[in-house]
Each structure stands twice: as C-alpha cells, then as structure tokens.
Amino acid sequence: MLELNEVLVEGAANTVSMMAQERQMTCLTGGTAQVRSHLLLAILGLVPVKSGFVNIDGEPLERQTMKKLRKMMAYVPSELRAEGEVTVYEPPSVQDLFMLKDNREAAISNGLLTEEMKRTCAPQEKAQLLAMAVLRQRPILLVENPAIESAGYLKGLARDGRIVVVASEERAILDMADEIIEI
To answer: Domains along the chain?
Structure first.
C-alpha cells in the first residue's frame, strides 16, 4: 500500500492524503501539472515534502529507507527532458535505454521491449518509457501524463496486482481510475 498523509509539496495550495492499494489505479488530478509532477517525485523521495509523510507498506519514506523503497517503484515521466536546446524530439533508441545501469540489470531483451511497447497502445516516445518501466516489474508504477491510448493498459496492470498511480487531467484516464484524488 502507498499512503500519502497530509502531504504538501512546493507550489501546492492544499495537502494531499490518499491510500493507493494493489489492484487499484489511482489518478491525481486538478491543480497544476507541476504540482502533480512534484507529488509523484515526492513519492519517489526526489523532491522534498514540506509537511506530511509518505509510507510504503507501512514504512515511512525517509533518508534511511529511501533507496530500499525506491526499488519498489518505477516512474514514467511525461517526457524525457534533454539538457540544452532541442528543436525536434527524437525518442531514445532501445540501445540508449539499455545503457542505463538499472535497465541493464533488468534482463530485458529487445524483443520483450518491442512487444510490451505494442501492448501500451501509446505513441512511440511514450510507449518506450512506459514499456521499460513495466518490464522492470516493480510493484508500484507512477506515471506522469500517460497517453490516453494507454488507459486500458494501465488499468490492466492494476488489475494484475500492481499499485498504479497516474497524474492526469485526461477524461479517458480519469474514467479508468478506481480512485480520483483531486489536488
């Protein structure tokens, strides 16, 4: 179980409390895209929580537990952000994704990645990010602004036993959510 108790992040006007459980898709909606993104990053311990706390399976996300608890989570950003000026987005190649240390250790073949990308039903740049996160087989999946075409796929992942938390304003995503948390 993933619990946020009165969590306040930078830019948020209100605190957020929720309990996301296995076999459930929870959608964070409302507020700004930046606040929704900060909430997902706070769950990962990558941005500070101004007040409140995050628990995973009853264990508080603290400096001492952060590394262990992060290994339970996979995060899918809304897009890859390159440093410097980029005029045309070019999705990373499969080889680029495998260069990341965590991905090399995950034993994911090109064939597996390609098949999982097809299942996501998302456009290629989002499909690569989502498929790689899913194939890492972490029990908690955090997805920022998923493609609407992936709504059913994400719901299926939740039904298969994962905790799926998405940040979105899209009606198709909201309609698939088991729980909607208004920020």
So the answer is: 2-80+89-182 (3.40.50.300)
- Residue ranges with strand state E in 68-171: 73-76, 140-144, 163-167
Residue 91: which H helix or E strand, with range? Answer: none
Residue 119 dihedral angles phi and psi, to the nearest 5°: -65, -30
**The pLDDT of residue 143:** 97
Q: Are 85 and 151 spatial neighbours (Cβ–Cβ below 8 Å)?
A: no
Residue/partner pairs of 168-174 with CB below 8 Å, 24 or more apart: 168/27, 168/28, 168/29, 168/36, 169/29, 169/30, 169/33, 170/145, 170/146, 172/148, 173/27, 173/146, 173/148, 174/27, 174/29
Instruction: Give the span between the Cα atoms of 135 and 107, in whole angstroms.
Output: 9
Give the distance from CA 19 to its chain's centroid: 16
pLDDT tens digits along 8-29: 999 999 999 999 999 999 999 9
Q: Are 9 and 36 in contact (CB under 8 A)?
A: no
Is residue 8 classed as helix, strand or coil in its secondary structure?
strand
β partners of residue 177: none
For range 79-98, the mean pLDDT: 57
pTM: 0.86
Q: Which two tokens stand for residue 58?
A: 């009853």
